Structure formats: C-alpha cells, structure tokens
Amino acid sequence: MKPVRSKVAVVLVIVASAVPALADDTESVRNCTWCHGASGQGYSPAPRLAGQRPQYIESQLKSFSEHTRDDPFSRQYMWGAVAALSPRMGRALAIHFSKLPAEAANDGDRALAATGKTIYQDGIPDSNIVSCAACHGPNAEGVRDIPRLGGLSYFYVKRRLKQWGEGYHAAAASPMPRIASTLPPNVIDAIASYLSFVK
Amino acid sequence: MMIIRLLAVLQTAVLAVVFSAAARAQDAPDLSGRALQAKIDYCKTCHGLSGQGYRGATPMPRLAGQQPEYFDNQLRAFIERRRENRFMYNVSHVLSPATRAALAAHFRDLNPRPLGGAPRDAIAMGKKVYDEGVASANVPACASCHGPEAKGNGLFPRLAGQLHDYVSNKLVNWTKERGQDPKNPDTSAIMEPIAHNLTKAQIAAVAAYLNYLQ
What we know:
The structure holds two protein chains of two kinds. By secondary structure, chain A is mainly alpha-helical. Chain A has helices at 2-18, 27-36, 54-65, 72-81, 87-98, 113-122, 133-136, 154-166, 176-180, 185-196. Chain A is globular and about 50 Å long. Chain A starts with a helix and ends with a helix. Chain B is mostly helical. In chain B, 51% of the residues lie in helices and 2% in strands. The radius of gyration of chain B is 20 Å and the shape is globular. The N and C termini of chain B lie far apart (60 Å).
C-alpha cells in the first residue's frame, strides 16, 4: 500500500507543478489581452475567452500551431501568436481565461432570438439540421472540449458558421464543418443572434 | 427599420411554416437515394460517423450493429411518448415507417470498434453480473435476454460496445424516461425491477464491461 500512496503523491506533485498560475499582468496573459480584451471579453474580431472551456481553448491553440484551423483571421493573427507558445504555457493560459467571469455580447438581432432558441434546442428535423444543444448543452455552456457558446458575439459565431460552410477547417475531429454546411443563412442569423444573449 | 422588421417577420414566418409542416410519422415521405443518405448523415452527426456513439453534452448511444426490431421500437416509443427524450422525439416524428426500417437496416450492418472510455477496474465484476445476474437481488443474468456476447435479439437490444455513461444513465433513470404512458404499457417494463434492484456499483461495473465488448 505504501508504494501506491507515494506514487500517487509523486503524480500529484508533478501535475500541480506542471502548470504555472498566471495573473492579469503576466506577460503571456498580456500577449493575449492586447486583442482579446483586458478581461478577456473579446474585441472584434477576437472572440471572448473569458469563461470558455479550458480544454477547448487548448485544442484551438493546438489547431493554430498545427495550422489545421485556417480561417483568414486565424491565419493572419493566431498562427503567429502561438508560434512561440509552449503546450505547458498554453494550458496555463487556457485555465487562466476559463476562470474569468464572462459577459454576454448582446449584439445579435433581438427579433430573431426566439426563433434562434428553438433551432438551438431542437434543430430542424425536416431539414436534417441537428440540435446544437445535444452537444453544446441546454444553456450553451459546453462540456469538456466542446465550447461554451453562450454570450459569444453574434458577428463571431455567424462568421465561423459561414466559414465552415465555405470550406474552412476546424480543429481536427470537429464535426462543425459538416454541420455548418447544412445551415442556410437565415438559420445562421437566428442561432448566432440567440446565442449572443445567453448568459 | 421597417424593412428590417419586415424581413425578420418574414424569416420567422418561413421558419414557422417549416416547423408546422413537420409531418407525423405516417404522413412523412419515404426516403430513398440522396434523401435517405442525407438523413443517415444527420443521424451520424450525433451518433458518430460510424454509428459508434458520441459524447456531447449527453452521451449519444452507439447505433452500430443494433437489433433492427429494437431500433424501430425505440423510434416509435419516442413518437408515442412511451420513452421520453426531447431530441429524439423531434428526430423521430418526421420519419415514416419505411424510413425507420431503412435506417435500422443501415445501422445494423455497421461494426466499428467500441468507443471505449470506461474506467477498467470494475470490468471483471461487470462480467460476473452480466453472465450470472445477482441472485440475492432477484436480478437475472443479463446474458439470458441480451445474449452471451451482448449482441441482443429482436426487441432485446445489443449492448456490446455501448457507451458506459449512456448505459449507466439509462439504468439509473429507467422509470423517469420509460413507460411514461400508463395507458400504453411498454416492453421496457421488464427492465424496471432489474434497474431498480441493481446497486450503483453494479450498474457502473456492468456498463464498464459492456463498454469494451466488440
């Protein structure tokens, strides 16, 4: 029994020391907040990072580093931004931003929010449009490496859905490009509007 | 402003027509060719590209290799509210009987590796419960109805390779989701005493065992 306990203790010590805790004025954090906003709330075109699933942030940093996520803004800004970022630091940053309180963007079209909510929850079965909630959760909170969508900017969500439909790639193994290519423009507008108001 | 509001109303109206036109199962069109393929792809978006299951906000079960009779019965159960699931009710009630049968046949023939993911420590205990039941709790061997290799039989579902978190959720929540219409008794009633009499540890063990079965 003793060897097992000390092995566990060693593992815990390794895990605990693997990822540094960061503060708002840490240089690596400021490298992000230049564009993503002082409290990580986002600043066009950079999306909100505050309150995002940490595993999702990590998976996106990896996709920038491996050049799998290839939409124009990612290519122009994020590929360079992560070029000198170690996985360890990427994890630390992901954890840091995930803990920041998130504010809803509230920048969608209010007239479309109710329709968007219905589509988000139930999809449109007749058109083979899946329910977003099945993966992203009933309140768009996300889980594991599936992102939180609640409160993201209408303009950001709309752009991503459109881009996937146009053939840009997501991180490896993401089903979103396939899903987005089934979405007509008015459905995208409704979903993106609804999400921008979700707390 | 007026134009934008009009457009918004028009868009809402179009979508309202889409929703209200959603057919009841008997009136839904029989799908074939590209329309059937589109519907299969739609199922696979949630249930895995090879029907192996997928872990979203909730675990979405493996359909690959499922018994067609069970598959069809569950789709009907969602429509008839014998089994309660918001997502699947929406999916099912636009499927015609012939489409259901075509989907069942498609998924029956898929055979991907199990998705896995369960903790491995209770697998041996799970196999024991599966093969022998729990006599002291009046729980029969699962194998007696679901088959020695958990491939299922007719209305008894295949369990081999099923997601462990899905199996656990269903067993723990059996009476909350199944047999919801007392006027319409359901085959699922046979599982009620079993789900009730198994302990949480036994459920987790059986689920872990099934999780890795090919």
